[in-house]
Design a protein that fits this description.
The protein has 6 helices and 7 strands.
Length: 180
């Protein structure tokens, strides 16, 4: 009888473990490219004005890889990933654009951050979005979050959290468009 009880406990434990793993896996995939691809194919786009006064839309950058990054000057991981992103922009000046949406409540915080490094590049656009209008449309859950679009404006992949963009495989999903 004890072996029968042990067998049932083992079976129940196995079922709970498999169920837990399935739930975790589903949760991890819930913010995946497939979900956001549905959003993008449904016509999600944006129009915004950069800090320099330039009116931009995602469609304006067709033919280039576009990094749409959501960040804030008070976000430590955001600040850590910026130098690698800038290096990538310098590596592919004609093939890549980054549009960085700052969630800071004070515009001076954004401009102060930009003064702290040489952030002026033609392929680097900064948008101050204190009301989080665009990040809400993209369903951003935490900062930093980056959406990488191909030249055809289709979502290639999304990164939640900081990434070392200077690593060779950081843009793996966009490599074919960048000539790598």
């Amino acid at each position: 009888m004890k072996s029968s009880t042990a067998l049932w406990l083992l079976l129940i434990t196995l079922v709970v473990a498999v169920g837990s793993f399935t739930g975790w896996w589903t949760y991890q995939r819930s913010g995946s490219v497939s979900e956001n691809s549905k959003l993008m194919s449904a016509g999600l786009t944006f129009s915004a004005t950069t800090l320099s006064g330039e009116k931009i839309r995602l469609e304006d950058f067709a033919g280039r890889v576009v990094l749409v990054n959501f960040w804030a000057s008070w976000c430590g991981p955001c600040l850590q990933e910026f130098p690698g992103m800038i290096r990538r922009l310098d590596e592919f000046p004609e093939k890549m654009v980054m549009i960085a949406f700052a969630a800071d409540s004070a515009k001076d915080d954004v401009t102060g951050f930009l003064r702290s490094f040489d952030g002026h590049r033609p392929n680097f656009k900064i948008v101050w979005d204190p009301e989080n209008v665009v990040s809400s449309r993209f369903r951003v859950r935490a900062l930093p979050e980056t959406f990488v679009f191909g030249p055809d404006q289709k979502l290639l992949f999304q990164v939640s959290g900081a990434r070392d963009w200077s690593l060779p495989n950081a843009l793996e999903g966009a490599a074919e468009f960048l000539g790598r």
